Amino acid sequence: MASVGSKYDEAVPPLVQKAAAWAWRLLAIIALAVAVLWVMRRLEVIVVPIAIALILSALMIPAVDFLDRRGAPRGGAVALVLLTGVAIVGGIMTFVVSQFVTGLPDLVEQVTHSIESTRTWLIEGPAHLSRDQINNAGNSAIEAIRNNQEKLTSGALSTAATVTEIVTGALLTLFTLIFFLHGGRNIWQFVTQIFPTGVQQRVRDAGRAGFQSLIGYIRATFLVALVDAVGIGTGLAIMGVPLALPLASVVFLGAFIPLVGAVIAGFLAVVVALLAKGFIYALITLGLIIAVQQLEGHVLQPLVMGRAVSIHPLAVVLAIAAGSVLAGIVGALLAVPTVAFLNSAVRVLLAPEPQAEVAAQEADDAKVIEAEADDVGIAETD
């Protein structure tokens, strides 16, 4: 039987044999990846808060480590950083909400004026529409909304039903974040014990390198988002566009979704400017957003993001597309940080000398911090 099998093997060309060997191995890898994604999808309520907590820990852990190195108790450092972060975020949200409440009546008044001006132009302008035609169009829109009121109400109720999940996810994120900041390294040491003894250290080094890359990505993204929000928010405030600060906050949050988020946030700002101030101000707002995006794409991204983590733009686009298909907005938000983590972790896993690769990446991170400090010094001098 063995000789018969060997005869059949010899009859198959070597190229086909290699292709078959690669094919079943790739199918096994794809099946494993699909199974992992299916499990993560089923446990989305748990996986997403843990992922968000990991990203937040990448943003906060440098401050915790700094206080720890200065002799502060680890628990006290975690509490101080968390309370400071909550105070800052809460203060900003309170200020933004108050500005929204203050600016909303002005926006409604200006939008009403714009609608009246548009109606007058449609009647007296080149279109020469009658008032009855315009009123019928408005009544049709109102009737369409009333006809779909049941769907809108059910959608609102389904949204309200997710409030419990949101609160649960927020509490789980906070709880996980505390433990990540306090003893994340020990947790990773414990988790890696499931791997064989011969590869445990390599896996630990890979996780450490991936987390360092995640820290660099989050720090760079935060800086880019802050510059975008300040630039666009200042321009909107100078032009007198209502809700300038809330729109700047939307721009800041949107910048955490590369390529896509900034475009959507900018489009929202243009729409508000169009409704509130007219076509000319909308064009000026569009020009302002394009200028800020050009500054980000040609100066900030290569200067900051390029130093922090090297990811090809095609990989960014594909990661966002895949993340949005798998998990919607949350998937698009988490896609690029995941790629940044895996980019460094896989390099260490495949490196002939993992320790040397980790040391090289940490040296690059030190150069990034030094270069960013030099850039800040240059900016202050200017």
Automatic annotation (TrEMBL):
What's its membrane topology? Multi-pass membrane protein
List locations, semicolon-separated. Cell membrane
Q: Enumerate the transmembrane spans.
A: 21-40, 46-67, 79-101, 156-181, 222-245, 251-271, 278-295, 315-342
Cleaved signal peptide residues: none
One GO cellular component term = plasma membrane
Which one Pfam family would you cite for this protein? AI-2E_transport
UniProt KW keywords: Cell membrane, Membrane, Transmembrane, Transmembrane helix, Transport
Q: Name one GO biological process term.
A: transmembrane transport
Q: Which family does it belong to?
A: Belongs to the autoinducer-2 exporter (AI-2E) (TC 2.A.86) family.
Q: What is this protein called?
A: AI-2E family transporter
Lineage in the entry? Answer: Bacteria, Bacillati, Actinomycetota, Actinomycetes, Mycobacteriales
